[in-house]
Amino acid sequence: MSALLAGPLPESLNSAISLIVAFVLGTLIGAERQYRQRTAGLRTNVLVALGAAAFVDLGMRLEGAAGGTRTVAYVISGVGFLGAGVIMKEGMNVRGLNTAATLWCSAAVGAFAGADLPVEALFVTVAVLAGNTLLRPLVNTINRAPIDESATEATYEVQVTTAPEEAGPARDLLVERLEAASYPVGGIEVVERGEDAVEVVATLVATAVEAAELDAVTAALARMPGIRHATWSVQTAD
């Protein structure tokens, strides 16, 4: 930080400036997250940036550039664990990926500030804000565009619901019907759905299928003895 001012600065003052830079830039990122009511908002992003700056600055003061480099490596892995805590899976939907990525970027901003690189920290902050705001219209436009499922890499699952004691026969029947329709099964599992029901879920190997064919397969399965319900679902890759 002393490179921005005339002459060297006392170490304590240099650290204070690094923390102030991290605080201000973390506030800019966090304010946008708070405005959109995300899980990790203003305070979280500020604390991540401050913590990263403090640890990197401490590493540099103790062991110079080598200490700062090692500390950055630990900050990257540590924030990875923190980001994992805000990712939630709800059914087939995953939420919080963008919030976790933003926390990671806040840590990068703090690391730049702690390493006495405030201009670079500002550049990262601008890029993060641009990614979270300016790209939103493009994302919305892409999301509204019709999807050609035959050209999309996706995971297809076929589920049948039956009684626990019928899980084995239902599994065999499900595999048999899918393979007869030329849809080999890549994996199959049995999921408990209460005391009197289980769901047999088959994941298909194919990356694209015909919806009408799977509709026919599930309709035939639903009419079989012991099968309470049959359906299929698709999840496109990220």
Automatic annotation (TrEMBL):
Membrane-traversing stretches: 12-30, 42-60, 72-89
Gene Ontology biological process: methylation
Membrane topology: Multi-pass membrane protein
Record's keyword terms, sorted: Cell inner membrane, Cell membrane, Membrane, Methyltransferase, Transferase, Transmembrane, Transmembrane helix
Any one Gene Ontology cellular component term annotated for this protein: plasma membrane
InterPro entries, per database record: MgtC-like_C, MgtC/SapB/SrpB/YhiD_fam, MgtC_SapB_SrpB_YhiD_N
Chain coiled-coil ranges: none
MgtC/SapB/SrpB/YhiD N-terminal domain mapped to chain residues: 19-139
Record carries keyword RNA-binding: no
Residue ranges of every copy of the MgtC-like C-terminal domain listed in the record: 156-232
Gene Ontology MF terms: methyltransferase activity
Cellular location(s): Cell inner membrane; Cell membrane
Pfam family, one: MgtC
Family of the protein in this entry: Belongs to the MgtC/SapB family.
Biological function: Virulence factor required for growth in low Mg(2+) medium and for intramacrophage survival. May be involved in regulating membrane potential by activating Na(+)/K(+)-ATPase.
Protein's name in the database: Protein MgtC
